[in-house]
User: Fold this.
Amino acid sequence: MVKKPTRRQKTMSLYANLTARRKNTRDAKARRKAEYLATLPKQPLKRLAYRLHPKRVIKFWFSKQGAVTFAKLVGVGFIILAIFIAALFAYYRRELDAIRPDELAKRVQTTVSRYVDRNGVLLWEDKGDTKYQLVVQSGDIANVMKQATIAVEDKDYYKHGGISITGIIRAGLSDVSGGEVQGASTLTQQLIKLVFFSQEAQANRLDISRKIKEIILAIEVERMYNKDQILSMYLNEAPYGGRRNGVESAALTYFGKKAKDLNVAEASLLAAIPKDPSYYNPYNTEGNKNLIARQHKVIGDMQEQGYITQQQADEAMKYPILDTIKPELAATEDIKAPHFVLEVRSQLEKEFGTKLIRDGGLTIKTTLDYRIQQIAEQQIKDNFKYAQAIGANNMALTAIDVPTGQVLSMVGSYDYSNKEYGEVNAATALLNPGSSIKPFMYANLFKPQQTTNWGAGSILADDNIDKLYGNKLLNFDGKFRGSITIRDALGSSRNPPAIKAAYIGGLDNAINTARDAGDKSYCVGVDYGLSAAIGSCAVKQVEHVDAYATLGNQGVYHPPAYVLEVKNAQGQSIKQWKDDSKRVLDAQITYMLSDILADDNARAYTFGRNAPGFNVPGVKTAAKSGTTDDGKGHAKDSWLMSYSPKMAVGIWTGRNDPKALTSLSSTGNQKVVTEVQKYAHTQVFQKEGTWKPNDWYQQPAGIQKLTVNGRTDIFPAWYTKPKGSDEKEVTFDRVSKKKATDCTPNRAKIALKTQTFQDPITKQNTTTAPDGYDPSSDDNVHSCGDAKPFVSVSATPSGVKSYKITANVNQGTFPLATIEFSVDGQVISSQSVGGPGSYSVDHTFSSGSHSISATIIDQGMYDASDSTTKNVASGGPSPIILSRRNFR
Assistant:
């Protein structure tokens, strides 16, 4: 009988079988692995290549073993990602407290930006319209405003939880395909960016760290607040290009109504702005066309998404929305120096972004000196009648501190409140500078050249160069002055020498010299020819004044500065003026130019002596005028530039339209410049100790004083006096300043040295003489048949040893000029003669014999003499004993 196994024996047998199976399985796996490895190449690199063969890799991942491996990897990846996201949420969660609606409202309501001048004078408080609350609740915002914003910015706003995966994918595909860049940020993300990251977004648009923060914070915000709260916060923070951020401020600024009263056309226009607030700002006329195009897109999106009907869309598109925009003037009430302040704000928006600047809470200390600004505005107002007299309707002035480049005054138009053009800042507009560009043509010529070098006394003939110029080229007086020095050419503003200077030094080099000095926009983006040397291109006034400040700063350029410091609401300095100067011209070059432009004799031919504006009482200045025409010989622009070692001033008079002036006169410019320069120097700079009367430049090392071509002037160190034997002595006539002839009276003759040289442009030999003498022509004032003057002299007693000497004179061909009385060969009296007649003088003699004579000289420098001799006794008068007359 067979014994049945016990329970214990059965259990032991089961485990034994399982163990055996497991062992058999492991053994089988081991055998299969060994067999697989035996099929592989033994060399490690070949083995790796064999295993990575695409067919084998694909076979593995589609096997059961591959699926298990993939599942394990995905599981581990999810765990790591969950831990990473949790850590990020924990890290950034602490930044959420500051965006609560009540805190946001407080921040916006209390932010007022203050603009002050360099001395703390308040210029403007950018505080919006305080009659209205700038932060409004959801119920105070029109539904069409909310709908327009959602339609154009985030059509799936009510469907997502803070981020849009489809938006991110769509933006990515658009970027990859090279199509129009599309934003992937939801309204919630945009709110986060506006509140926390406006400065970071302005500085770095592709900051991955910031994007991660936006996504995380957006998810948290969606969890904390409902959709209506988030949308209301966004509309209160969004930049609309106006004084303040937020829809309420925008509605008041542009339409004069509250946000709750906006219609479809108005709401769609506002919703179009935040994409680029500076460009789409309705006051930026350059962007108006594209603004309307974007508004129509908003309206189209609203209709497609069911917010408005087709009829409403059509009506909104036809509505003349830009005609309803309120003038910007209403947004700048109580503003001082409006053109300057608004230019400061514009520049700060470009640097820091519209959001930061329009948020407010800033204190902006500008470079403006309101004392100088006031006198500039008043002088333009007082002298505008002179502008009107020549057909002008506008004036603009800029003043810059020479040592720093800081703008001290800016008057952008005659009247800021003028509805036609008052708000347009002519000081930053492109205008033709005319002859005021000429100093920079000579500055380039004065640089060391490869062949001939040049100085203030170099000859650059004023003659016909129509062939070189390619057109008819005249001076303002329609004449040519022949061989004149650069000093006279620049001082009297002759055109041909300036063209020659640009041509010899290289026109492109000359234009770049002007740009380096500060005229950054001159001839940019246009085809220019030699006419650019006399001001045919356009430049901004503020740049042009800054270029003259470079001359005044002895060749050191400073970029025009408007701001000394910007502080945020916490009193932290976020911007400070710094010295970004660089030398662009040698000091010897600017010294020569300043010496010429301050030379009253050099400009006397054109402007007369002691002309106002060119000469400022008690203040030594250098000055240059400039005029342009409309191509038909009619004046268009009138400029006057003036500078000292302390301040540069430029004033423009002209029209805000293409019309020409009715006549040309610089009286208004001259009077304004005189008073502004005088006040600034004597009432501001002198009292501050930054200037003293008649301050001027020290002559830099290297400047030479040489006599070249018979004329003494200053030259740079690199100038070498030309060698040659072409110098000879020539007799000239003092009256005609031409070569003397046989008919020239001896008294009119003068011997001067002349020099012959070849003109670098015309290649013609030209003979030069000093002091304006013309060696190419003969005396044409005198003729051999001229009648000479006549004189007779007598002496009659008038007291003890005293006599009255009398001369009777008659005129010849020329008017009489001077009579001289002499005793014993010594002139005792010289008198001007008005015409024929008797002229006398009293004289007391010593005892003895004395010779008495009278000489009459006329304006042709003909002369005639008569003499007498008398004995004077110790006891009293004695009779005349001899008389002799001489005529020449």
Q: What stands out?
A: The first strand starts at residue 113 and ends at 116. The chain has 28 helices and 29 strands. Residues 453 and 720 are 7 Å apart (CA to CA). Residues 7-39 form the longest helix (33 residues).
